[in-house]
Amino acid sequence: MTLNEFTDKVVLITGGASGMGLASAKRFSELGAKVCIMDKNKTRLNEVNIHLSASEDQIMTLECDISEPSQIEKGMKEINNSWGRLDIVFANAGIGGVMAPIETMDIKDWKKTIDIDLTGTFATVKYAIPLLKKQGGSIVITSSISGNRVYSQAGFSCYSTAKAAQATFMKMAALELGQYGIRVNAVCPGGVATNMSENMSKSPEVQNISMQPHFPRGNQPLMKGSADPSQIADAVEFLTSQKASHITGTELYIDGGESLLQG
Ligand code: NAD
């Protein structure tokens, strides 16, 4: 492996046991970085090494539910104890949440989505700051086109609200952390072929709501089909690299042009 700017850097990826998190873990480990994957899915965590061709001392897997801030704080201590630094955070873990009309949505389902997608992202960034501040670094948050192009996503109020708030939180974090040499950006994917999108497309709630004419669904992307998770990893690699050294507070859409058609 040739040395590059990521060699021996320490990267934290939440939700790194699947989908775009796993694709990014693969990418960073191939570039020689040390990667800590925090994920709540123990089975998938135990299998990540099958997907990564990395040496054992390059990968750390931590079972962590990001809606439990104490678990994130504990994870940061483990990263510090093992590797003594943190350079890059990909705050990516999230759920699609429940799709239901506002009138019938259960408050518990609303809170669960906000706890994971929004508060979990906040807590990930919050507890990473002391480590990132030591030498500067870069944070990428996974928002979504759903946070911006809401009118074609009726029935998706909790997810869209959480994703929109993540994008605003990203800008606030960029504003506060620039003084420490920490850049903060967001990736906003459209459809990506992952477990999450597959499960959602099969869910009865999504099927049901898609059938209702007064709940219109989104358009197809200009570039046909879903993105591959590796295409999100491309964007994360760019945003955390020196090539993006003057980029902070930005939302990068990786949606095959879908948002152009909806806006
Ligand atoms: P995925 O289901 O393949 O991966 C998500 C990972 O997050 C899983 O490994 C899961 O165990 C983990 N996770 C879920 N809740 C967690 C929690 N509370 N604590 C820790 N880990 C948790 O899905 P994905 O599509 O790769 O999703 C990654 C991110 O991308 C999410 O934030 C999602 O909202 C966002 N996103 C997905 C799409 C899409 O079309 N798939 C589009 C836009 C944005």
Automatic annotation (TrEMBL):
Q: Which family does it belong to?
A: Belongs to the short-chain dehydrogenases/reductases (SDR) family.
Which InterPro entries does this entry report, sorted A to Z?
A: NAD(P)-bd_dom_sf, SDR_fam
Q: Which species does this protein come from?
A: Salipaludibacillus neizhouensis
Biological process, per Gene Ontology = bile acid metabolic process
- In the record, what lineage is assigned to the organism producing the protein? Bacteria, Bacillati, Bacillota, Bacilli, Bacillales
The protein's superkingdom reads: Bacteria
Q: Which PANTHER family match?
A: DEHYDROGENASES, SHORT CHAIN, ESTRADIOL 17-BETA-DEHYDROGENASE 8-RELATED
What is the name of the protein in this document? 3-oxoacyl-[acyl-carrier-protein] reductase
Stored SUPFAM superfamilies: NAD(P)-binding Rossmann-fold domains
The portions of this protein that span the membrane are: none
Q: Which UniProt keywords apply?
A: Oxidoreductase
Q: Name one GO molecular function term.
A: oxidoreductase activity
